[in-house]
Specification:
By secondary structure, this protein is of the alpha+beta class. It has a single domain, classed as Nucleoside Triphosphate Pyrophosphohydrolase, CATH 3.90.79. The protein has 4 helices and 9 strands. Strands 3, 4, 5, 6, 7, 8 and 9 form a 7-stranded mixed sheet that branches. It has a two-stranded antiparallel sheet with strand order 1-2. A hairpin with a 2-residue loop joins strand 3 (about 30-40) and strand 4. The mean pLDDT is about 95.
Length: about 160
């Protein structure tokens, strides 16, 4: 069964609900939880699987689409568990940002969180090809290196650095 998403306006108000395929085809605005997962002072940066329809083989933080009726926090905890096999401890909201990915006609309201990943990492190979544990400076270097990265990784790191100033 296809996921149903809340279609929102720029004030984060639900306009209606629609199947994921319609949201993606029309570039409708929807919600996503993006999570900077820390383990032992390093950030889990994942390389998306090559078979993903959007942003294949791009480096990213954990990202999870918020399903209709689900909270950002529920999606964040679910995403960390599904993608990395970890429990999200001390989930902390950093902020919201509308992100437009023109390459994939993708428009999302990103709510950024940080958390501590707890447990033994077990990646979902259908979603994630590999995970690197990097410092903030190493993540900046990865972005600057010219490899493919998601807009939410770039914006998320910027928001995180601004929040800890």
């Amino acid at each position: 069964m296809e996921e149903i998403l809340d279609v929102i306006n720029e004030k984060n108000e639900v306009i209606r609900q629609a199947p994921r395929s319609e949201v993606e085809a029309k570039g409708l605005l929807y919600r996503t939880a993006e999570i900077i997962v820390f383990m032992e002072g390093k950030i889990a940066i994942q390389k998306r699987a090559a078979n993903k329809t959007k942003r294949p083989s791009h480096y990213s933080i954990v990202g999870e689409t918020v399903k209709a009726g689900e909270t950002f926090e529920e999606a964040a905890v679910r995403g960390v568990r599904e993608e990395l096999g970890l429990e999200a401890r001390n989930l902390r909201k950093i902020g919201d940002k509308i992100v437009h990915d023109e390459l994939y006609t993708d428009n999302m309201l990103m709510r950024l969180f940080t958390c501590e990943g707890e447990g033994r990492m077990e990646i979902d190979e259908g979603e994630v090809k590999e995970v690197k544990m990097l410092s903030v400076e190493e993540v900046q270097g990865l972005i600057a290196s010219g490899v493919k990265v998601t807009p939410c990784l770039v914006e998320g790191l910027r928001m995180y650095k601004e929040a800890i100033r």
